[in-house]
Amino acid sequence: MQFKSVNPATGQLVRTFEEISDRDLELALGTAHKAYETDWRLRPVAERARIVSRAAAILREKADEYAGYLTLEMGKRIAESHSEVAMSAAARN
User: How far apart are CA 71 and CA 60, in angstroms?
Assistant: First the structure.
């Protein structure tokens, strides 16, 4: 079964995604977990903070692009999409 992304405003197909097997999903999750255990969690907090801050800066730099995706795939008004991108870039945990 394919998963489809459809523009809710026009009904136009944006993209299709092939279903993956349970095994492929488990492999992907295992790879991500291994990267966390052997790399990310071992980095100093200050280094992780720099990386996350850079990701936030990229979100801000490409806000128009990312807001466009939200509008295209979810039907949000562009101003709402921009607000959501800004909120994501500002999030800190």
Answer: 17
User: Tell me: the pLDDT tens digits for 9-64?
Assistant: 889 999 999 999 999 999 999 999 999 999 999 999 999 999 999 999 999 999 99
Q: Is 9 helix (H, G, I), strand (E, B) or coil?
A: coil
Answer whether 0.90 is exceeded by the pTM. Answer: no
How far, in Å, are 46, 56, 86 from residue 68 at the CA level? 32, 17, 13
> Residues 6 or more apart from 75 whose CB is under 8 A from it?
7, 8, 9
Q: Is 70 left (phi over 0), alpha (psi -120 to 50) or beta?
A: alpha
**Quick check: 92 pLDDT over 80?**
no
Q: CB under 8 Å, gap of 24 or more: what pairs does 28-37 form?
A: none
Question: What's the Cα-to-Cα distance from 77 to each of 22, 45, 64, 90, rounded to whole Å?
Answer: 36, 37, 13, 20
Boundaries of every domain in the chain: 1-42, 47-93
